[in-house]
Amino acid sequence: MGRRSRHLRPLAVLAVIVVVALAGWAIHNGSGCATSEPTGIASAEPGQPAPALVGTTLDGQPFDLAAERGRPVIVNFWASWCVPCQAEFPLLQAAQAAHAADGLVVVGVIYQDTSAAAKAFASSHGATWVNVADPCGSIATAYTVVAPPQTYFIAADGMLKSRQIGEIIGPDLDRQLSAILP
Fold first, then answer.
1. Looking at residue 1, what is its pLDDT?
2. What is the predicted pLDDT for the residue at 126?
3. Do 74 and 163 fall into the same domain?
4. More confident residue, 27 or 70
5. Is residue 14 part of a domain?
6. Do residues 12 and 98 share a domain?
7. Domain count across the chain
8. pLDDT grade, residue 44 (50/70/90)?
9. Residue 130 belongs to a domain with what CATH number?
10. Is 6 a residue whose pLDDT tops 90?
């Protein structure tokens, strides 16, 4: 009987691995996310048109970046667990207020975070701009986001003028804004 149990143990481990893998697959597919990488995505390189950004806000409203055409836009990828993101929020809020007359729009995109945690973070940090959920990561993929914070500066004509990988500090923000503001 001891010999037989030695042979059954690896089979039992394999069965557990298969069950866990299938459960993970079912949960992922149950989230409504596509299982393959998006195709036909525009490049998120300065000098190119900004990739599409369509989704649902944390308030459950539909959002389409194309509706903001004609206005300069900052797209900021952030997460509640991201420490540098905390430092950026006051700068983004100040920029939005200072350049309201120029039509500046700030759009947050939630990166690998839950909507509940993102809502609490945005509320406690005074984010007054639209924040779009990205549960499948398709927006982050289109914008070639590696990790938060990552910020894109889009001119009124929809062209991506520049991007900031990593935390924005005051001089960086001023330099980046000068590329998109009238």
1. 52
2. 84
3. yes
4. 70
5. yes
6. no
7. 2
8. confident
9. 3.40.30.10
10. no
User: Per the omega criterion (within 30 degrees of 0), is the bond before 149 cis?
Assistant: yes
- Count Cα atoms within 13 angstroms, Cβ side, for 5: 2
Each residue's pLDDT tens digit, 80-115? 999 999 999 999 999 999 999 999 999 999 999 999
Name the DSSP letter for residue 50. Answer: P
Which tens digits make up the pLDDT trace of 25-42? Answer: 333 444 556 544 444 445
H or E element at residue 139: helix 138-142
Q: Is the dihedral of CA 99, 121, 167, 151 positive or negative?
A: negative
Residues 124 and 92 in one domain: yes
- Identify which of 145, 68, 131 has the alpha carbon closest to the alpha carbon of residue 104: 68
SS3 4: helix
- Read off the tokens for 172: 């960086």
Tokens at residue 123, please? Answer: 């509320």
Show the domain range for 149.
54-178
User: Which single residue is written with the structure tokens 């503001």?
Assistant: 181
